Amino acid sequence: MDMLREVANKLFQEYWSANDVIAEAVYDKLEELGVDLDDNLSEVISLKIDDFLRESDHKDDFDNDLKTLAENISKDIDASKYDYQQFSLSTQDIEQVLERIFTSLKEFVVKKSAENLSEAWKKDSHRLLEIRRKDANYFQSLLDSVWRKPLFLLEMLIDISRDLVTKFLEEIAENPKDEISHIALQQLTLRGLQVADEIYLLLKNGYADGAEARWRTLSEIMVVTVFIGEHGPETAKRYLAHSVITNHKEIRELINTYSPEEWDEDEYKYYLDELKKLEKLKTIMIEEYGNSFKNDFGWAAHIVENPSIRTLEKAIGLHQNRPRYMSANRNVHSGSESIQERLGNNPFSDSIATGQSTFGIAEPGRQTAFALCRLVSVLILKRPSLDHQAELKALLKLRNEIYEEFEKVHEEQLQAEIDNIENNNADDPDFEGS
Prior knowledge:
- By secondary structure, the protein is an all-alpha fold.
- The chain folds into two domains: 2-124, no CATH class; 176-426, no CATH class.
- The protein has helices spanning 2-15, 18-33, 39-56, 62-74, 91-174, 179-204, 208-241, 243-257, 265-289, 309-315, 322-328, 337-340, 362-380, 386-426.
């Protein structure tokens, strides 16, 4: 606000002196009378205004001074052509000019202020960001001192899972079969591994709520993968084909969002052509798979009624996943619970986490380990062997250790907070114990 005021004052002083303001009011009045202001007359008026400002300085009767100025200017204009009785100036005329000036300057002042503020930010950004980085490094060391072991184990699990999946894909490439199922399952698994990496990075940097949001995505990938794994090639085929329905919906929404006049002509034609192609494919899909195929999760409608993540969870025996999934919605959507319940909040404080936090790390970490192991198992067990079974058993053993470590550290963290509160209260002379 101070910068905005400073810029406004500077601009006004630079471009609008008292002479300019009064001259503007004079020109307005003369224009109303139809006076033709040539260069000579403008110069005469300017000189008279200069004289007026010198003579009227520190006087109290400014209104009468303005009337005198008007009379003096009138003498320099051909009296036979104009009714000079109408030519008068008052403080109200000056105020109207000032109001118009400030209105016209407003947008310019805001723009100029934004430019100045942006430059000020850039000038100071290196110093401020260096402080921020030092704070981040300190926080990182603090988080590592608490969560180092379970986070290390989770990173290990993700890395081993990726190695197992890579090895498996190399093996099946030499002897491909049931190709449609493998295409769907391997793409889902690879995407799940990427999301698991994102979750790990968020947890390692103290963003438990962000990690929970990404776990929700990983959970959906896991549920869909398990469902396709259980119901075979036909379901995999429908799943892959369903992208036509989704793409059709997205492009139709995009076209309807803007009027034709707002589009680039070539771009608009491109999307219309794409929509027509997708409409044809959609019609073919619905004819082959039934009318319910056009709905969300319609690819699973031949197995479950009114398919959704909820019904798929139930179909694969993971209905116990539902409460945690629902809880994760708060970090995806903007309901009021999303601002009232945060994993990163200290449970013993009224403060709200607005950035990195050492709290809330355990649950997203545990759930990620479970979802990732289930995801990888579905793919690898499509080609069961003693090696694969041993690898997956070892993976599950690691998962269980991760569970225990996250839970252990979580309990230790809470107890440390309780001890800290009790110690602080013991040092407070006003505190009365129970």
